[in-house]
Amino acid sequence: MDDEFTQELGHRIRELRELQKRPLEEVAQEADIHRTTLGKIERGDREPSLSIALRIADALNVTVTELVNPDSFRTPQKEHVIDDADIYENVPFDGKAVLRGIEEAYENLDTIDFAFRRRGADPLAEQFDEYSALSTVLGEFFATGVASGSDGVYEVNAGDFPDLISTGATDDVPGIEIKVAMETYMPKGHLPKPGMYIAIRYVLADRDKNYQCGERKDTAWIWEVRMGKIEADQFNKSDTEGDSGKTATFSAEALWNFDCVYLDPDLIPYSRYKDKEALSKVQGQSTH
Fold it and tell me: For position 283, what pLDDT does the model report?
């Protein structure tokens, strides 16, 4: 960790502690570190490990992302959630669970980026040879968030289809598969499996959410989440060489028939969609 970052982090920790009007000894005790260690961290004389930074964040009731950089950590906006989507009549949760899924994805990805930054390494988005790996990680974190926001109705079905399954707490809970794609690409899987899906699409902007269509930077931002049912004949099958073997891609018609449940209009990568009529086609419903 460079000296400037160490100084900034120490200043931020002290600032938060003093805003909460809490003595150094109390925060150090809750973080399970010695008070002299916390004092050195606050003065910028010592760099905290990731585990210590996480414990300090917990003691101060903030996320590690907020602790590291309160001005540029990722957070989804509640006004981008579309609460009146018809699809909610078919699932036992609402827009709060979708929002929690995005929050979980951002928080976990930012924690990882913090660890890389501490080592002087590139962010996670630049660590993969293929963006499909980043998409997989994002989808898994999102699934965990939706499960935690479903009031005990769903749990993550690790490594198997579908991604979200019933905990047994409620009857007639449909399994949900989560698919992730970049920009305007259609989500895909290895086989055309019918059922309920959540389709997430994201762009790569910078930490401050500056995005230019056609440019890929180092931070994943979710621009759209859609949810709906799809039949086996609504997939486009492909045998493209080098594309992980046989794949089944959503047809555009199938995806547009899904309900839009989250949309960030500042990040829409369809550069040709500038007028209101075109935007409504992407959006599906009106945001609040």
Answer: 59
Alpha-carbon dihedral of residues 265, 269, 272, 273, nearest 10 degrees?
-30
State the pTM of this model. 0.76
Neighbours of 106 (CB within 10 A): 24
* Dist. CA 41–CA 39, nearest whole Å: 5
Q: Give 4's contacts (C-beta < 8 A, 6+ positions apart).
A: none
Q: Which two tokens stand for residue 99?
A: 């929002």
Report the C-alpha gap between 109 and 128 in whole angstroms. Answer: 14
Measured N-to-C along each axis, helices 95-118 and 50-59 cross at an angle, to the nearest 10 degrees, of 140
Instruction: Please say whether the beta carbons of 209 and 218 come within 8 A.
Output: no
Identity of residue 119 = R
User: What are the contacts of 62-71 at 24+ separation with CB within 8 A?
Assistant: 62/16, 63/107, 63/110, 63/111, 64/110, 64/111, 64/114, 65/106, 65/107, 65/110, 65/111, 65/114, 67/9, 67/12, 67/13, 67/16, 68/9, 68/12, 68/110, 68/114, 68/117, 69/207, 70/12, 71/208
> What are the residue ranges of helices labelled H in the chain?
3-19, 24-30, 35-43, 50-59, 64-68, 95-118, 131-148, 252-257, 276-283
Instruction: For residue range 185-223, list pLDDT tens digits in order.
Output: 999 988 899 999 999 999 999 988 899 888 899 999 999
The per-residue pLDDT for 288 is: 36
Interaxial angle between packed helices 35-43 and 3-19, expressed in degrees from 0 to 180 and rounded to the nearest 10: 120
Max Cα distance, the chain (Å)? 65
